[in-house]
Design brief:
The structure is a single chain. By secondary structure, the chain is of the alpha/beta class. The chain contains 15 helices and 12 strands. It has 2 domains: about 10-350, TIM Barrel (Alpha-Beta Barrel), CATH 3.20.20.30; about 365-395. The chain is about 50% helix and about 15% strand. An 8-stranded parallel β-barrel has the order 1-2-3-4-7-8-9-12, surrounded by 6 helices. The chain has a two-stranded antiparallel sheet with strand order 5-6. The protein has a two-stranded parallel ribbon with strand order 10-11. Helix 2 packs parallel to helix 3 (about 90-105).
Length: about 400
């Protein structure tokens, strides 16, 4: 059972880190990412979020803002967000100013996702203490929201200073673009989002720890919003999870033999996020991912069941974001997204209900309709013959 506001329907999008195994041509990999966003735009997906990473070789978008600017020129409708901008890596004034520019360049299609930074190797190279990253994120977020609101800000921390700072241009979206805070398992993300009245972006929603705390995270949002006098909205809550679906379960498993093992190896040996199961055997890997509820490698029905499971656990959220990956080749990956757009999304958006009801109504009443149509045809034939006979009698 969900508790979204009346009239709200579930949206669908992608959270694109992206993940590209090392040894590939990075230029071509980035081009595939852009083409994928074009494909999702054509399929009617609602939004796409792009990560910021600077090391480890797999997640190769260094500036989500630059990527959004490129994607915006190749799409028409899909909203585009930083997923996320790692706030400790940027002076808040410069990031706020860039996002305002991007808001105008995209004609109001930009969203701002923020977080403390995911890869310890990124923070290490910049000399940032990982223990301070969450506090730095919250300090920066406060400054950014004030600047986006048109305030003049004087603020000093141990890592940035603002002196009567003001943005020379206001955002196109008023009061400013939607701002979402990333969350994994800890309550740091929900605490910051609730304090500032931001949206929540639950990146680890399907991991064992992330799934278990979904309800608790929203409780934290409500408590912090009440404490600081802000408002939070379930319809702006995003949950992220990976899927690959095909026409059959067997086809889906065959598809992911292309790249699943490399993706799991990255999370087991390099990345800091505990997302992948502790196994290297392909068959047991697929079984473990499906059985744990972390991922869906299967069919449309499996995907529908996963989204319904997340709705039940969370008690209602606004957007399901598919975690972007290259488990399968390009053609199979695009087909997976097409199946989701064609069959999964309509189940949660009610877009096909009226069509089904109309078809069933027409089928149930077919004898009556056919009878009436047949009588009309016979009547027309009789009338035609009567008119011909009348004309003949006057000759």
């Amino acid at each position: 059972m969900t508790t979204l506001p009346a009239g709200e329907q579930l949206k669908f999008g992608i959270f694109l880190a992206p993940f590209h195994p090392v040894g590939q041509n990075p230029t071509l990999a980035l081009e595939r990412d852009l083409q994928l966003i074009e494909h999702l735009d054509e399929l009617g997906f609602d939004e796409a979020w792009f990560g910021e990473h600077h090391s480890a070789g797999y997640e190769i978008i260094a500036s989500p803002e630059v990527f959004i600017a490129a994607a915006a020129q190749r799409t028409k409708h899909i909203k585009l967000g930083t997923g996320v901008s790692s706030l400790p890596y940027h002076h808040p004034f410069m990031l706020a100013d860039r996002m305002v520019l991007l808001d105008h360049l995209t004609r109001g299609r930009v969203m701002i996702g923020v977080g403390p930074g995911a890869l310890p190797s990124d923070a290490f190279m910049m000399g940032i203490d990982p223990a301070k990253q969450r506090d730095m994120m919250e300090e920066s977020l406060e400054a950014i929201l004030l600047l986006l609101s048109g305030e003049t800000v004087s603020m000093e921390t141990d890592w940035f200073k603002l002196v009567k700072a003001r943005l020379q241009m206001l955002p196109l979206q008023r009061p400013y673009p939607e701002v979402a805070v990333a969350a994994q398992v800890s309550p740091a993300g929900p605490r910051a989002a609730g304090k500032f009245g931001c949206s929540l972006l639950s990146i680890g929603a399907t991991s064992a720890g992330g799934f278990d705390v979904l309800g608790a995270h929203w409780d934290v949002m409500d408590e912090r919003a009440a404490e600081f006098g802000t408002t939070v909205d379930r319809s702006k809550w995003r949950l992220v999870g990976p899927m690959h679906i095909a026409d059959t379960k067997e086809q889906a498993v065959s598809d992911v033999a292309f790249g699943l093992e490399e993706w799991v190896d990255y999370f087991q040996r390099v990345a800091a996020l505990p997302l992948a199961p502790d196994t290297t055997n392909f068959d047991s890997l697929v079984d473990a991912l499906n059985a744990s509820g972390f991922a869906v490698i299967g069919t449309v029905d499996d995907a529908i069941a996963q989204v319904a499971r997340l709705q039940e656990q969370s008690k209602g959220f606004g957007t399901f974001l598919l975690m972007g990956h290259e488990w399968a080749d390009t053609a199979a990956t695009r087909h997976s997204y097409e199946l989701i757009a064609r069959y999964v999304a309509p189940r949660f958006q009610g877009s096909s209900d009226k069509l089904t009801a109309s078809r069933d109504w027409a089928a149930e009443n077919r004898p009556e309709f056919i009878g009436a149509a047949g009588n009309a045809v016979m009547s027309a034939i009789q009338k035609h013959h009567e008119e011909k006979a009348a004309k003949a009698s006057h000759v």
